[in-house]
């Protein structure tokens, strides 16, 4: 299958203390740097499933930007729709505790508007080639607007990934147009208007609210409790999580989204697609890097 990914590239700087993290103290540990960004992560994840991937994104005019493109190309990802700009890549700094959970982070956001220019110039050829498009919805709204305009023109399904549920609520017109919407337990609390603690109760709440929300296919990930899913035909269920030792949770949500979107693009059921997402996410949780490697 041919899958186009529209999203960001970041540099991730991660700190892992050897002992308990002391917020205002001196913490001895390990600091590592990785290629990151939701769009870049997803492109690598999708490539690991053996699909043809094209990444529509930006990188800086620096050596790091060259390194990012080089790695993507070595992974077989098409980078012809990536543009080098003066402020094309973001930076994310994070500190994790000994269990792999995030303690603190700060990010620097890039200027993403040139992505819309890429879509205006090359969108027809991108969407003619693609069997599906995976969009990072948190970017400037002009990018989402152009993406869905092209999707409607060419009849291509769009799968959206989010990092900010409040922003997604403001952009529900795009969420309703998307083929599938995936969020986590905390995000579902905002989306569905109620807090529940187990997947069985989440399924009931999803069935109660889905029609009012107008979402085609809905998945809520619930960490060790697995994922609750509800498709557009009313088929619902719980996909159990895999037990793994947690090293770093960064990128697990991107991996779950990627596997699920790949499965649906292949024509699989939402249940089977969630199994692919669970497999990818469980592998990412068990290692420091952000992406699924088959």
Automatic annotation (TrEMBL):
Signal peptide region: none
Keyword set includes Cytoplasm: no
Pfam families: PfkB
Protein name stated in the entry: Pseudouridine kinase
InterPro entries recorded: PfkB_dom (IPR011611), Ribokinase-like (IPR029056)
Keyword field contains Kinase: yes
Domain of life from the UniProt record: Bacteria
Molecular function per GO: kinase activity
PANTHER family per the UniProt record, alphabetical: RIBOKINASE, SUGAR KINASE
Coiled-coil portions: none
Keyword tags: Kinase, Transferase
All residue ranges annotated as the Carbohydrate kinase PfkB domain in the record: 2-288
């Amino acid at each position: 299958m041919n899958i186009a990914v529209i999203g960001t590239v970041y540099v991730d700087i991660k700190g892992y203390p050897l002992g308990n993290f002391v917020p205002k103290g001196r913490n001895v540990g390990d600091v590592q740097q990785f290629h990151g960004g939701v769009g870049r992560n997803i492109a690598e994840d999708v490539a690991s499933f053996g699909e043809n991937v094209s990444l529509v994104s930006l990188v800086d005019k620096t050596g790091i930007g060259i390194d990012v493109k080089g790695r993507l190309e070595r992974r077989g990802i098409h980078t012809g729709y990536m543009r080098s700009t003066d402020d094309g890549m973001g930076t994310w700094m994070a500190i994790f505790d000994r269990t792999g959970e995030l303690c603190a982070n700060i990010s620097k956001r890039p200027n993403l508007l040139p992505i819309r220019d890429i879509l205006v110039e090359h969108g027809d050829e991108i969407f003619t080639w693609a069997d599906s498009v995976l969009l990072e919805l948190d970017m400037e709204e002009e990018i989402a607007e152009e993406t869905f305009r092209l999707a409607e023109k060419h009849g291509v399904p769009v799968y959206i990934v989010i990092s900010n549920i409040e922003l997604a609520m403001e952009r529900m017109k795009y969420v309703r147009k998307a083929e599938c919407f995936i969020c986590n337990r905390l995000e579902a609390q905002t989306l569905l208007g109620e807090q529940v603690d187990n997947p069985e109760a989440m399924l009931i709440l999803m069935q109660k609210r889905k029609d009012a929300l107008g979402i085609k296919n809905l998945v809520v990930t619930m960490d060790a409790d697995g994922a609750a899913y509800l498709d557009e035909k009313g088929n619902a269920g719980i996909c159990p999580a895999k037990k793994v030792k947690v090293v770093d949770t960064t990128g697990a949500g991107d991996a779950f989204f990627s596997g699920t979107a790949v499965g649906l693009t292949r024509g699989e059921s939402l249940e089977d697609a969630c199994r692919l997402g669970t497999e990818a996410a469980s592998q990412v949780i068990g290692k420091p890097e952000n992406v699924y490697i088959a």
